[in-house]
C-alpha cells in the first residue's frame, strides 16, 4: 500500500510530505483548493504522461516520490524481481519533470523507462476518476477481475501456458508442412549430387597422390634420359667411368710408401666416396627398373584429375574440399528426410496439448460462468443501493471463433451495463457517465476486494450527482472496502467524509506573489468543523456541529 507521498514544486504545491495510513483516507476542501493535485501527482508517479505546465511557476522542475509497502503485494514483488529492482519489501517511485518538458522516472533509485513505471504502477494503484481512463474501461481488466472473484487465476495461467506451447508448435509444424514441396525438390537434387560423389569415389589423400603421379608421368622421358646418363657416367662408360676413376685413385695412393695423416685421410674419403657412388648407382637402377612410363597410365591419371576438378568447380569449392562438401550434403539430406518423422512427432505433441487445453479451458469456462452469474446479482444489488435502482449489469462470455487456442480461454469476457430502463446492456465505455462508472466500479471493487491483487485504490469524486442516503451508502461501501484494501477518496459529501479512517483537508494559502496548497491531517474538533462546513450553511451553528458529531459518531 501507499505509505508516503512527497510532492515538490508541482502545480501550486511548493512542498508537501504526507504519511498515508491504511484503511479509508478521505480528502476534502473548498472548491479550487487543489484536492485532486495529490491524486494527479500520484498518477504521474505511477506512469501518467507529464505536462510541463505542471511545474510550479518559478521552479526548474517538479518532483514526486511515492513509497509503497509491498508486504501484501506479491505480484509487484515478482515484477520487481524479474526486473532486478527489488529492494526489501518496499518500492519507491520517483518522477522528475522539468519546465522544458523533459521527464525522468526512477524505480527504487534506478533510472527506468516510463513503460516500466506504468507497469509497476498498475500493480500498486488503481486510480478511478471521472476524467481518467479507468481500469473498468479495459476489457482485459474484466477477465482479471472475474478470475480473481472466481479464484481461477492459477487455472487461467495454466490455460494460457498450454495455449502458448500449442500455438508455438503449430507454427513450427505449419512452416514445416508448407515447405514440403521445396523439401521434395531439394531431396531430389541432393540425391543426384551425392550419386555423383559416390560415382567419383574420391579417397582421402588421393588428390595429392594423383597430382604427384601426373607430374612424374609428364616428365618421364626426361627423367629416364637423365638417369641413364648418370649411370653411364658413374659405371657404364668404357672410357673411364666414375667408379673406375675412384678405384684408380685409391690404387695410386695405396702404392705410396708414405705414412702420413693427410694421405691416410684422403684414402678413407676416396673409399667412402666409392661406396656411396656404388649405392647411388644401385638406387638409380632400381628406380629405372620400376619406373612406369606407360602413356595410357598418364591418360588415366589426367582423366581422373579432370573429373575431380570438374566436380569441385560445379560445387564452387577447392578440389581438396570435396570430401567435406560430400559430408555436408549427406548431413543435409539426412535432416530433411528426418523432417517427416519430426512432423509426426509435432502433430502428436499438438494433439496431446489440445486435449489438455480443452480439459482445463472447459473447467475454467464452467467456473467463470458460475462466478459471473453470482457477481452479476451482487453488483446489481449494489447498483440499486448506489442510486441506480433499475440498472442492469451483465457479464458477457462470448466463445472465441478461432482456429488457434486462445491463451485467454475459450471465451471473450466483457462487462455490460445499462442504467436506463428499457435499454439493453452495452459496454461500460459507451453508456456509463463518469459518476456512474465510478459507482459501478466501487460496487465491483467492494465485492471483489477479498481477492483483489491491487493494494491501493483511489476514487476521485465518486459521489458526484448523489446525496442523502445514497451518499451515506457510498461512504459505508468505501469504508467497507477500506477494511480490506487501502482507499483514497476525494469527496464533497459529508456522508462520505465522515466514514474515513483518516481525513486530509486541502486548503489554499495566498500571498502577495503566489498561492500554494497545503494538506492537513484532521482530528478531533478540526474534523468536526470540516464535516460541519461540508453540511452547508452560511454559518456553522451548534446544530450543524451536533449533526457533524453525530455523523462521526456512527464510525466510532
Automatic annotation (TrEMBL):
Record domain RecF/RecN/SMC N-terminal: where: 1-512
Known function: May be involved in recombinational repair of damaged DNA.
Annotated protein name in UniProt: DNA repair protein RecN
Coiled-coil region(s): 336-381
Residues in the signal sequence: none
Family indicated by similarity: Belongs to the RecN family.
One Pfam family it belongs to: SMC_N
InterPro entries named in the record: DNA_recomb/repair_RecN, P-loop_NTPase, RecF/RecN/SMC_N
Lineage: Bacteria, Pseudomonadati, Pseudomonadota, Gammaproteobacteria, Oceanospirillales
Keyword field: ATP-binding, Coiled coil, DNA damage, DNA repair, Nucleotide-binding
NCBIfam families, sorted: PRK10869.1, recN
Amino acid at each position: 500500500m501507499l505509505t508516503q507521498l512527497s510532492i515538490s514544486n508541482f502545480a501550486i504545491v511548493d512542498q508537501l510530505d504526507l504519511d498515508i495510513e491504511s484503511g479509508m483516507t478521505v480528502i476534502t476542501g473548498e472548491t479550487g483548493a487543489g484536492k485532486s493535485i495529490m491524486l494527479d501527482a500520484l498518477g504521474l508517479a505511477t506512469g501518467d504522461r507529464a505536462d510541463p505546465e505542471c511545474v510550479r511557476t518559478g521552479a526548474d522542475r517538479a518532483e514526486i516520490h511515492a513509497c509503497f509497502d509491498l508486504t501484501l503485494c506479491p505480484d509487484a514483488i515478482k515484477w520487481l524481481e524479474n526486473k532486478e529492482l527489488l529492494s526489501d519489501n518496499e518500492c519507491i517511485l520517483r518522477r522528475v519533470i522539468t519546465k522544458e518538458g523533459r521527464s525522468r522516472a526512477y524505480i527504487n533509485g534506478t533510472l527506468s523507462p516510463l513503460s516500466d513505471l506504468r507497469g509497476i504502477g498498475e500493480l500498486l494503484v488503481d486510480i478511478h476518476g471521472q476524467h481518467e481512463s479507468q481500469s473498468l474501461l479495459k476489457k482485459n481488466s474484466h477477465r482479471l477481475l472475474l478470475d480473481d472473484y472466481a479464484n481461477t487465476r492459477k487455472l487461467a495461467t495454466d490455460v494460457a501456458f498450454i495455449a502458448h506451447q500449442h500455438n508455438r508448435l503449430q507454427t513450427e509444424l505449419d512452416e514445416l508442412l508448407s515447405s514440403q514441396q521445396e523439401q521434395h525438390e531439394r531431396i531430389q537434387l541432393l540425391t543426384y549430387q551425392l550419386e555423383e560423389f559416390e560415382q567419383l569415389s574420391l579417397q582421402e589423400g588421393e588428390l595429392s597422390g594423383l597430382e604427384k603421379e601426373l607430374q612424374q608421368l609428364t616428365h618421364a622421358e626426361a627423367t629416364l634420359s637423365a638417369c641413364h646418363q648418370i649411370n653411364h657416367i658413374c659405371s657404364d662408360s668404357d672410357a673411364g667411368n666414375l667408379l673406375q676413376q675412384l678405384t684408380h685413385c685409391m690404387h695410386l695412393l695405396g702404392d705410396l710408401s708414405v705414412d702420413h695423416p693427410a694421405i691416410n685421410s684422403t684414402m678413407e674419403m676416396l673409399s667412402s666416396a666409392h661406396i656411396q657412388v656404388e649405392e647411388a648407382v644401385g638406387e638409380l637402377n632400381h628406380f629405372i627398373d620400376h619406373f612406369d612410363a606407360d602413356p595410357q597410365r598418364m591418360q588415366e591419371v589426367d582423366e581422373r584429375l579432370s573429373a575431380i576438378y570438374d566436380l569441385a568447380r560445379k560445387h564452387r569449392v577447392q578440389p581438396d574440399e570435396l570430401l567435406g562438401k560430400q559430408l555436408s550434403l549427406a548431413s543435409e539430406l539426412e535432416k530433411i528426410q528426418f523432417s517427416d518423422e519430426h512432423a509426426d512427432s509435432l502433430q502428436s505433441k499438438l494433439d496431446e496439448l489440445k486435449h489438455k487445453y480443452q480439459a482445463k479451458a472447459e473447467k475454467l469456462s464452467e467456473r467463470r460462468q458460475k462466478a459471473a452469474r453470482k457477481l452479476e446479482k451482487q453488483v446489481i444489488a449494489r447498483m440499486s443501493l448506489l442510486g441506480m435502482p433499475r440498472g442492469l449489469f451483465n457479464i458477457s462470455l462470448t466463445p472465441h471463433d478461432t482456429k488457434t487456442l486462445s491463451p485467454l480461454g475459450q471465451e471473450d469476457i466483457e462487462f455490460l451495463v445499462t442504467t436506463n430502463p428499457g435499454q439493453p446492456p452495452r459496454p461500460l465505455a459507451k453508456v456509463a457517465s463518469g459518476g456512474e462508472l465510478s459507482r459501478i466500479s466501487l460496487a465491483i471493487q467492494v465485492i471483489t476486494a477479498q481477492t483483489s491483487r491491487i493494494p491501493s485504490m483511489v476514487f476521485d469524486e465518486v459521489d458526484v450527482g448523489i446525496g442523502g442516503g445514497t451518499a451515506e451508502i457510498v461512504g459505508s461501501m468505501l469504508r467497507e472496502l477500506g477494511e480490506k484494501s487501502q482507499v483514497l477518496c476525494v469527496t464533497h459529501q459529508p456522508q462520505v467524509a465522515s466514514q474515513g479512517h483518516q481525513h486530509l483537508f486541502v486548503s489554499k494559502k495566498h500571498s502577495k506573489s503566489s498561492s500554494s496548497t497545503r494538506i492537513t491531517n484532521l482530528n478531533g474538533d478540526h474534523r468536526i468543523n470540516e464535516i460541519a462546513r461540508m453540511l452547508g450553511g452560511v454559518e456553522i451553528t451548534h446544530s450543524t456541529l451536533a449533526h457533524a458529531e453525530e455523523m462521526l459518531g456512527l464510525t466510532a
